[in-house]
Design a protein that fits this description.
4 copies of one chain form a homotetramer.
Chain A lengths: L1 H14 L6 H4 L4 E5 L2 E4 L4 E4 L2 H4 L8 H12 L12 H15 L7 E4 L4 H16 L4 E4 L8 H4 L5 H5 L8 E4 L11 H10 L10 E4 L2 E2 L5 E2 L2 H13 L3 E5 L23 E4 L12 E4 L19 H15 L3 H24 L2 E5 L2 E5 L3 H13 L2 E2 L1 E3 L5 E4 L7 H26 L1
Chain lengths: 428, 428, 428, 428
Amino acid sequence: MTTTTITPKTTFDRVESRVRSYSRSFPRVFDRAVGATIYDVHGKAYTDFLAGCSTLNYGHNDPDLKAALIDYVSGDGIAHGLDMFTDAKQNFLVAFERYILKSRDMNYHVQFTGPTGANAVEAALKLARKVTGRTNVIAFTNGFHGVTLGALAATGNGKHRGGASTPLTGVSRAAYDGYYGPDIDTADLLERDLSDPSSGVDKPAAIILETVQGEGGLNAASPEWLRKIEAIARRHGALFIIDDIQAGCGRTGGFFSFDGMGLSPDIVTMAKSLSGMGLPLAVTLLKPEHDIWKPAEHNGTFRGNNHAFITAAAALEKFWADHAFRQEVESKASYLAGRLSAIAEQHDLKVKGRGMMIGVDAGSGERAAEICKACFAKGLIIETSGSFDEVVKILAPLTISHNQLAAGLDVLEDAFDAVLGMQRAAAE
Amino acid sequence: MTTTTITPKTTFDRVESRVRSYSRSFPRVFDRAVGATIYDVHGKAYTDFLAGCSTLNYGHNDPDLKAALIDYVSGDGIAHGLDMFTDAKQNFLVAFERYILKSRDMNYHVQFTGPTGANAVEAALKLARKVTGRTNVIAFTNGFHGVTLGALAATGNGKHRGGASTPLTGVSRAAYDGYYGPDIDTADLLERDLSDPSSGVDKPAAIILETVQGEGGLNAASPEWLRKIEAIARRHGALFIIDDIQAGCGRTGGFFSFDGMGLSPDIVTMAKSLSGMGLPLAVTLLKPEHDIWKPAEHNGTFRGNNHAFITAAAALEKFWADHAFRQEVESKASYLAGRLSAIAEQHDLKVKGRGMMIGVDAGSGERAAEICKACFAKGLIIETSGSFDEVVKILAPLTISHNQLAAGLDVLEDAFDAVLGMQRAAAE
Amino acid sequence: MTTTTITPKTTFDRVESRVRSYSRSFPRVFDRAVGATIYDVHGKAYTDFLAGCSTLNYGHNDPDLKAALIDYVSGDGIAHGLDMFTDAKQNFLVAFERYILKSRDMNYHVQFTGPTGANAVEAALKLARKVTGRTNVIAFTNGFHGVTLGALAATGNGKHRGGASTPLTGVSRAAYDGYYGPDIDTADLLERDLSDPSSGVDKPAAIILETVQGEGGLNAASPEWLRKIEAIARRHGALFIIDDIQAGCGRTGGFFSFDGMGLSPDIVTMAKSLSGMGLPLAVTLLKPEHDIWKPAEHNGTFRGNNHAFITAAAALEKFWADHAFRQEVESKASYLAGRLSAIAEQHDLKVKGRGMMIGVDAGSGERAAEICKACFAKGLIIETSGSFDEVVKILAPLTISHNQLAAGLDVLEDAFDAVLGMQRAAAE
Amino acid sequence: MTTTTITPKTTFDRVESRVRSYSRSFPRVFDRAVGATIYDVHGKAYTDFLAGCSTLNYGHNDPDLKAALIDYVSGDGIAHGLDMFTDAKQNFLVAFERYILKSRDMNYHVQFTGPTGANAVEAALKLARKVTGRTNVIAFTNGFHGVTLGALAATGNGKHRGGASTPLTGVSRAAYDGYYGPDIDTADLLERDLSDPSSGVDKPAAIILETVQGEGGLNAASPEWLRKIEAIARRHGALFIIDDIQAGCGRTGGFFSFDGMGLSPDIVTMAKSLSGMGLPLAVTLLKPEHDIWKPAEHNGTFRGNNHAFITAAAALEKFWADHAFRQEVESKASYLAGRLSAIAEQHDLKVKGRGMMIGVDAGSGERAAEICKACFAKGLIIETSGSFDEVVKILAPLTISHNQLAAGLDVLEDAFDAVLGMQRAAAE
């Protein structure tokens, strides 16, 4: 089997760009995946606690989604139609309207942007600037919104920002909920900045945020803080944008991460798990009164991925037609929180996040990396998050079975014990 | 049938963003497509001379690509794996290396960017700035490189630029080949600008161009001019980037639009027809010496679309393992050029473009729109291009049969006659 | 006398731009001034509590400075010599070195920028970017650094920022000392931002601030806070720039506003009272290790105003050869603080500022404007400051006699009583 | 006398910034100047063919201007009054209106900006953006408009641009008259760019230019070309700005460099010789319909330099009350042109420029530097201009006597002979 392992390595080393990243943490060649399990070319099974960074909320190759796609392709369904009307798009819109918008009494237009989260964010920021006639945007510490130039300006991560190799403009930074510790309400700071005409923080076109910062360290904002921020946006004439790319599609329980919080964002960006099966798809939801785009003003070849429409519509119908899935996620999230709290308590660490977007701050990036490495050696794929990659982050498929979840958490618990025990030993 | 027509309209009108564009030219709901034919939900067949703006060079649902995809999905092949190593990615890289790079004696690293052309361009510009430590980029009049903020700065189209609603920075504009008429060699103007330290045109990180400007009016640069531009880039320490997103993948005959021209771009961006079946996929090809990315410095959820790898590898093997396809395209291109020349001559118009990326300048956007509308009424899907949308552009699948191509051109010829005849009549 | 009043008004109305501002508050034509008194063309005397916004710290037409200038001009001293060596420049440098730098054990190079404060700030920011290779600059809420595009980006005032009519770039905003109330140490917030690689606040080339914000509302930073900010700059590799344009030249007691605070800024900008007599002059003081300018890299026609060198050297010798002047200023400042505290206490208001750069927050811009108007009616020229122009600001010449100062304060006290009494009456 | 020479050198070396430039070409300490003669501290006289880069068009210390200034200062005239109404300002406006505007049937508002040319340009660009709601500005190859960030973006010189150490934005570059050789009308190229909505050159707020490029190599635009550019500005809704800072105030004959050309710029910037005596003063002339500034929207401490108003008004009356001075300048310019043509012909070189802003392209910066050095050794102060500092530029005071001008030109002629003769010898 050695040969097989070597050959692929050689190809990747020879031809793939050095920018590749996850393949460094998980140096295996994978070929097949079902549910929460992913297999390498040698047939070894891994439990997937990464799930495409929340792109596979319904697991790998869900049988119903898969069947719908095969059926569509077999029948010569349109794969690519630019942004023309297709039956597949219509069915997706019908499902999205029925299962998502109507039940929440939400009224939004759906913009099909290029099929990346960054593209949805670019569209959102452009539109907010167009609507308000302003150029500044407020984004938050540790926020992640993508790496194309417009979205990257809103992203906090220094490595990604540095990748631009040119100054990033158009964004003023504000502190996320809790960023300056529990005694400072950062929403009040922002309100102070925006209500002072000489603060030097220009009136914004938009305030953009994630309700839980997936890449930024699983910081979860409180509903109260989010409502204050929305009110600040309204008061100062800015659009309120929720970037629900990582936290949406059930990851925190509801379809939207802000379900039930009494929020009414002007724009919502979605991608990742929207297609349900990991296919590229991104949308920007717009309140109709803001939908002042001229035709094709924001365009792109792959806006509207018909294969993704098929799987997305199937996923909406399967998981969001009633409350069962949400309750299942909440139940798992509760179990997950209990297990992680125990781990955290054991090692005097802190649990972070919300719903099934939760993790443990290991105290340092080195530790977190060792823990993830130890997990991988035991067949568990798991990654880190945070300014210093210090948070071990669990992003299991929401559909994972209780047993597989529990078993994965056992591996994780052992890894914490092993690494932090060792570190304690080394320190003594 | 009225009911069916009305219902979808209602859904789209109610829920889809006003930014939609092609559905305005072709107000039908399509559901199925094979080869060069696309069907609406009433079963009416249309010949597709748009081909996803050159995304469907091998036609809709090529049987071999489709079979490979169904096979992969049926076997629970990984749909989404972030940028981890997968068997599908490896096979794509092996095929790309074998059929494309090696036979051309090209040595490039393949960066899987987010699956949009704009994302590939963003990566290219970021890397060029990183490599050179400069920030300025030279882009050309009428160039189109995408609408995310970094790429949009390089795009010439005023409507798209205006969509940013904020100034676009980091790009100096230069005139494309022939832009100032036949007597002025615009490469000489650029050389003058860059060799004068007080011209005010800052030394660029990169010069980026399309060899044929697909959106900009089918302007085709001469090989001599392209070689001069490459030499200018070299002389002034800039990277030479060819954006082959629309013109690549056989559209002009060779796999690369610059095949056989003696060019050696530092970076090449590709997307559109790369997956072969219209699935979202984009790559940036980098000369290895420029591949100084840090891991994940440019990242994204959907970089590396495994379904697209499957169809792309199949397409490479099917169409690029030998010269047959290229010769077939060249033969069709020759026929096409003859037919269009006849139309142009008849109406005293001008043929533009190269290979199967060719069209007729109808003299005004209004005329071109009428012609396209007349074609659509006769079952031919065709679109315009150019600063004033004045060029009727033929982007038929390269695999279209001679008969279907001829029949489509008959429709087009009639439409020119009808519209220009009518206009003459109206003028008289 | 009516004729005289009308004619000038007519000229100004006819020919001067609508951008004029102070002439709106003080609609008289002035022609002569001595010490703290300024006369209009009808011979009416006004006490000047504005002093050219701290440009006339030594009063109008100080007899010694005036004599030196007349002497120089009479002897055909060079008025303009670009930045060539002149005797006048040499004498200024000798005096500056002797009376200012040496006695403080400071080692700085003097850069003669264009003779405006904004130009000195532009030079400072350019150099900081050149030295560090970074582009971001930290500036503070309510800071004022000028209105040319580079300096304006650092200025907080919304009206001035809006005047650019284009986005201002290159500056991240931080909160000044006390900006978020007494319980929040804003230096800690900045430290948090800069020590988090994912905060989204890029590592700065410089941190620029005023020790007292002259235009921003007479906010005075504490020495402890200033030292923390300097330490933060050092820790994060940024240059520490003090903009001493309004607070310098004795306004707060010492020649530099930061004298005796244990600070060692990398760059200091000076202008306003530097020439001593109101003549245009600005300098940027640079630590020698940062003086990496290429010859003429920052240039300008009027850098080095020789008439101003003459009066500046005379002023340095007259006022800064020993401690007498400083003590005189401190004594007046103490008297001033007492009088303003009494006014503030009477009306339940707050005193703001430091040294002879002090005022009373009248609670609203309308009130402050009425108070200033009432003063002017009684022959006192005084202006406002602050985000809402709510602070009545005393910037009397430092050389004002005790009697004239006291008499001016009597007028001011009456004006507060009249306006706030009236407002109380109106409210009752 | 050695001591005197050494001491100053030491002071300058110790305390003045390395950015100093002209003192490198003329390493003497000067102390006195009259007319076209400047004296160093040893009493050695130099003829001044630099004249403060056209700041001393009326020579050093003109007796009438000097007398007016001494008179004003002696009478305690206001030196600094912010932008309040003063008698001095009024007299200047009256004179400017009478001698300059009315006789030309021009109707402009005068904005007193900070007293640097750069500040006047910053004001002009800000206002053009405010008036048009656009942000792009067209500036030309080899243009020089100052080095503060907004003006610097419009400046072509690479060394100055590099000094920003951050990307310069908001300006698109166009080619100046003749830039691409005699066969290409660059106005036509600009018209092509601006009339194509997809050129990628955004519709500009303004087109800014010098009629003769003083720093850029004495390139003189033809009246026809200037009229075409003005027409282009009008046609595309842009303001037409003439930067007359170096070429104005009689340098090319008329008070404005564009006198008699049939031009009607929307904005004119002036500085340098405006005060008549080398004192800092700058204005921006605005057509009244564009004067939409809010009060103080563009402000600054030294806007309105009263000493400069005195000398400026005296200069306007002395030199511009009738046509005598203009005729005198034209006569000298004609003599000058003849002498330089002879020199150029002798060495097969090219004369550049217009009026008394004229020079000889020496073929290389090295040669030009040697020529200037040789002149200085013979008591003639003269400098270079151009992309490569290749043009030896004569900017003598316009008031220079025929004899002194002739003698200076003799020195210059000898220097050309010596340097170019030597070079020929060296080459042989």
